[in-house]
Amino acid sequence: MRKSIFFISKDPTRCLIAKGWASKLPSTKWTFQSGGASTGILDELPKRAMYEVNLPIPEEIPSIHDVTVQEAHHVIWIRDKEAGETLPPLLEKLRT
């Protein structure tokens, strides 16, 4: 059975890039998902950066509510410490 890692961030671009790099790992034991605290269309600059390093570019940014975070084996919260980002309520509930 494959284990899943879920990348999440307030800035959805970060989690998409993390998922893209992780998916390049030569492992068949893991699956990778990502979601942002906000949704919408990916800005042009991150699209170009992802294109240049051959990372998959989604049409829309997935929301943490569109995917099942609770089923992930590991959740990685990517945050901007200097901006004072705190854990979203959804992840606070999962914290043990």
Summarize the structure.
The chain is α/β, with parallel strands linked by helices. It has 3 helices and 3 strands, in the order E-H-E-H-E-H. Helix content is 28%, strand content 20%.
How many β-strand stretches?
A: 3
Structural class: alpha/beta
**Fraction of residues in β-strands:** 15-25%
* N-to-C order of helices and strands: EHEHEH
Question: Layout of SSEs?
Answer:
Elements: E1 3-9, H1 12-23, E2 30-36, H2 44-52, E3 74-78, H3 89-94
Parallel strand pairs: 1-2, 1-3
Question: Care to describe what's here?
Answer:
It is a single chain. The protein is α/β, with parallel strands linked by helices. It is 28% helix and 20% strand. It is built from three helices and three strands, in the order βαβαβα. The protein has helices at 12-23, 44-52, 89-94, and strands at residues 3-9, 30-36, 74-78. It has a three-stranded parallel sheet, with helices on one face. β1, α1 and β2 (30-36) form a beta-alpha-beta unit. It is globular and about 35 Å long.
